[in-house]
Design brief:
Blueprint (H helix, E strand, L loop, with lengths): L1 H9 L4 H42 L7 H8 L6 H9 L3 H19 L4 H7 L5 H12 L3 H6 L36 E6 L2 E9 L6 H11 L11 E5 L12 E7 L11 E5 L2 E9 L5 H12 L13 E4 L12 E7 L4
Helix pairs in contact: 2-3, 4-10, 5-6, 6-7
Length: 334
């Protein structure tokens, strides 16, 4: 009876039509799974290309724009995808690979320690020796004489410096079990009044004070007004004093700006939204997870525009661990 009742809700199916419908539905799920698998392979393949490019050009000063182009990723979001998948920043990876190469050179060549130090990016053999001893517990000269000692693996990443070989694949970094609810949403353009802050993100309080003090007399803080933050730069890449952040509050269409407060539109489109619960200082962990784990396993590409955050409660009256923030990641349209 339950089966007949169910079929009556979807239409006047014959038994043959029902089997065709089941087959089609199963194929849709299979196609989606295949698409996600292909996307995972695509992210992995593109990151492997970048890793080989870095190793081939280990002595050069590589820019993030150059590496993003090599990976065919948006330059806006490349580094978050990279650090999320690798578990370390580009700078950290390059510094580590240079030290691993130096360790190999110490035990397989007669090159002087000074030359090895300079090729590893250090200004002197003393600076190199100090860092090498911190990492291995041995000075470079002692390590050179101890051929049975191997340079330790100092990262959770599976990427190591390889000689005369190409990196074929790697196991993406997993900070912890991914337990993230992500919703794909279409967002309309959002008109906001905003105040620009330049400097460490945690010092953006004065921008919010200026914004709220200006909009409160206009009656623009109540009702459906949303408090939004737009972070233009990745703090793992850009120096803290150069970080750009816009403190924003949604405003009506006829708002044209007032003293100290400009107006702009946050670009709408397709976004992935996840909710972060906890201190603003731990937002970086959620960003790394959504870019490095969720996005790289999805069938979506990041769009070349900034993320934004909607703050759902007041940090002045809420304990840091109870703060709720919706994070919006821009996605390419189909």
């Amino acid at each position: 009876m339950k089966k007949k009742y169910y079929l009556s809700q979807v239409g006047n199916f014959t038994d043959i039509n029902f089997r065709v419908w089941q087959y089609a539905r199963r194929n849709i799920y299979m196609d989606k799974s295949l698409m996600q698998l292909n996307t995972r392979k695509s992210y992995l393949t593109r990151m492997v290309n970048v890793l080989n490019y870095i190793q081939d050009n280990l002595d050069k000063e590589l820019t993030l724009q150059e590496l993003a182009a090599e990976a065919c990723f948006s330059s806006y979001h490349f580094h978050r995808i990279f650090s999320g998948m690798l578990g370390e920043s580009v700078k950290e990876l390059v510094r580590r690979l240079r030290l691993e190469r130096a360790a190999i050179q110490l035990q397989t060549s007669t090159t002087s320690i000074l030359e090895i130090a300079l090729s590893a990016g250090y200004e002197s053999d003393m600076a190199f020796s100090r860092m090498f001893k911190v990492k291995t517990g041995l000075s470079p000269s002692v390590f050179r004489r101890s051929l049975q000692i191997k340079y330790p693996c100092l990262t959770q990443s599976t990427i190591r410096y390889v000689t005369n070989e190409r990196i074929a694949s790697f196991e993406p970094f997993r900070e912890k079990e991914l337990n993230m609810n992500v919703i794909i949403k279409h967002v309309d353009d959002i008109l906001v009044g905003f105040v620009r802050h330049v400097g460490p993100y945690q010092d953006c309080g004065p921008a919010w004070d200026t914004l709220c003090c200006a909009l409160a007399p206009e009656g623009l803080l109540g009702g459906d007004a949303k408090m939004i933050g737009v972070s233009h730069d990745d703090p793992d890449v850009i120096a803290a004093q150069k970080l750009r952040y816009d403190a924003c509050i949604t405003v009506p269409k006829d708002f044209s700006g007032i003293d100290g407060v400009a107006v702009k539109s946050i670009s709408g489109g397709r976004y992935a939204m996840t909710t972060h619960i906890g201190s603003y200082e731990t937002l970086g962990t959620t960003y790394r997870q959504i870019f490095g784990q969720w996005l790289s396993q999805s069938d979506f590409e990041p769009a070349d525009k900034p993320c934004f955050e909607i703050y759902l409660n007041d940090p002045e009256s809420t304990a840091p661990e109870d703060l709720v923030t919706d994070i919006y990641i821009p996605l390419e349209e189909d």
